[in-house]
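Researcher: Here's a chain I'd like modeled. Treat it as a single chain, no partners, no ligands.
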Amino acid sequence: MSETFETDNKEIERAILVGVWVRGQNEEWEVRDTLDELAQLTAGAGAEVLSQILCKQSKIHAGHFIGQGKAEEISQKVLEEDANLVVFDEDLTPAQGRNLESVLGVRVIDRTQLILDIFAQRAQTREGCLQIELAQHLYLLPRLRRMWTHLERQKGGIGLKGPGETQLEMDRRRIQDLIRTLNKELTQVRTRRAEQRRGRRRHGWALVSLVGYTNAGKSTLLNRLAGADIYAKDQLFATLDPTTRQVELPNREPCLITDTVGFIRKLPHNLVESFKATLEEVAEADLVLHVIDCSHPQVEQQIDAVNVVLQEIGAEEKPVLCVLNKIDTDEGAGAAKRLARTLGRSVAVSAVTGENIEGLLDELSDCLKGDKELMKLEVPLSEGRLLALLKNSATVLEEKYEGPNAELLVRVPLPLVPRCEPYRIAST
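Model: Modeled as a single isolated chain. Structure tokens:
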């Protein structure tokens, strides 16, 4: 049920963007910055951006979000520029959207609806499509009445319901049934993901999650670290579906790194709720790699936006290594030096050129080494499964074979320590 940005005859949508600055609530430059971001989102969804309008007012108006007079000014702008779409950089209530469409005479959508449309266009996997569909239905449910305004005058008499009301109730029940079905399917997805994580834990692999503002360079970084070929493009939300790759660290220990969906300011709450199956990868990780676009003029605000989402998904206490990306640019190099003094543990890199990737891998090794215990073991050769597990999941520093046993000096992942304890022969 996603919105589309093309009509049946493939006519490109022509959009006017509207931002609202409420004096005293935030700074004017913040609103202008998110409005520029909205322009990137709109263009990425396939629409042509005609112009941007910033409304300055003292309060939010209940009826039209903006004042009636300002709405009429925008209506005139719509006629002058032959626009057929108006996009608001704020969330509108169903009533506000309905009232604005009545005044403006064209379709009106808000930031959440736009982001949901982009996600619907780009999700590739079954899991991603399920999550997007759930978010769209959660968004649509309270807005059904707006879709049926053309039937509002068809009222029945006492004891009767007009056809519009009947259809509205039927659609509401149908969407509620779909939401229940999607939630059930996503519960199964979460169960499968939990089983996969338990399997990785049994092998002792460290789990690392990449997070960051959209277009910070997460996919490019994972491609660089793992030699992967994940789709990476200079646009917002270029990739949505999570991808996991194995990376061997300089100390010969393997780890699994998962690229997750990019975050953004004003990330729709329904989207966070629907993507919990994916975002649980972050909450369950041993280490979070926060990829930061140091070249962006509002890099601090982007960092704050990521931290807000981490808090919302219960991952704010996870150990974090900040990756100060894009130091191949003059802006990025200067900002990286400044941010390194204020952030916690960090390393500056360029995912595009590969500059200091070795330093990042060294930091990763150092961050994860606390998850392993140094043990000296004497394991019977008959314990072939354990020996194979140690070869794959532990770091073997020394090995010597004496008769029926193997003597090993190994760094063992903590989940495997109880399994190895019976074969420990000396304190290390």
